[in-house]
């Protein structure tokens, strides 16, 4: 992955080094400058400041008993808990996630912003490296095997960066060759207006690299035999700073947020006033958007004896990557893409990405409230995961927390506190009851021996 830049005066740089070892380089201005306040706090003490991996180490200056960085580059790991919080618990399989900094065509970014959010953004006002940079965060939940989810972790961010418009007709032609549902495919299946969007959110006008990158995943995986029998859901968050000069995502006053999504992983935008804006919806066969898309093939909808709906009697999700043998029957890799302008700066607290092992047992409001007062994004992610475990989730679980300019400033009452405590007490009672039931069975078996 190429080296890309996050700011000019604060010069935050993210460099992808390996699969998940990404780094942020912060070039600090003069000590005490207003624009440097947040960034210097991120790496202000010699005890916690990571050493640069390339270039000269910045000099340190002692001011008021604190060690500050003088102008120069300093690198901080992107997987530092102060930047992106991660918590994961493996059950019968493993979730995957990835962070990366993409270097995209600035003209394509300009067109995308204009079509999706009606924003006139001028990339020529920034240095080339700054105008090209976009932060990528992805979460992937595999099923039937790990072939597809591992491929996504390793390759999807690269496909976003390297997708070529000239290859799009070839990719869509491959999709049509799948036959069945895709026989009349023309590069778009989402019915306009079929999904309820939050205010200020629009369908991604130009779609950017999202659609061709997701289709390219299936095209590439078609060479892998395992990808016929297994698949993965995926949610991708793209963050582009629109500040002049550009600032890091965690201090930016103006951000373009894009979410590309298939399946039932979940992305939540959490505001400092306690509101939660869901940026995804589950792509289950009974969901309104999917029922509209698959209305001509609803014979594939089967409800089992437990009341769970399965498409073709096998799949919970009707949009996913992989599961190639089900593609002719309406299972599509086409992502639902939404964009939103975050221009309120400190009004946005953080973004949370969840696998369905968490979202199936916790409400959106509970997820947001659990992050209140957490000292770091990692602590917030751990709180979410621990409560999901208390609620009895037995699926694999992953939570990612991405701080924004309003991180740590959630106000208002914790509306779900009493409900969480009630649910916790109920689960304790259930565990005790289940323990007595198991003890009784064991005792009965012992008596018969």
Automatic annotation (TrEMBL):
Alphabetized PROSITE patterns for the sequence: PPM_1 (PS01032), PPM_2 (PS51746)
CDD domains per record: PP2Cc (cd00143)
Region named Disordered: 39-62
Keywords associated with the record: Hydrolase, Metal-binding, Protein phosphatase
Record bears the keyword Ribosomal protein: no
Any one GO molecular-function label of the UniProt entry: metal ion binding
Composition bias, Low complexity: 39-54
Pfam families xref list: PP2C (PF00481)
SUPFAM superfamilies per the UniProt record, alphabetical: PP2C-like
Name of this protein: Protein phosphatase 2C 4
Organism: Grifola frondosa
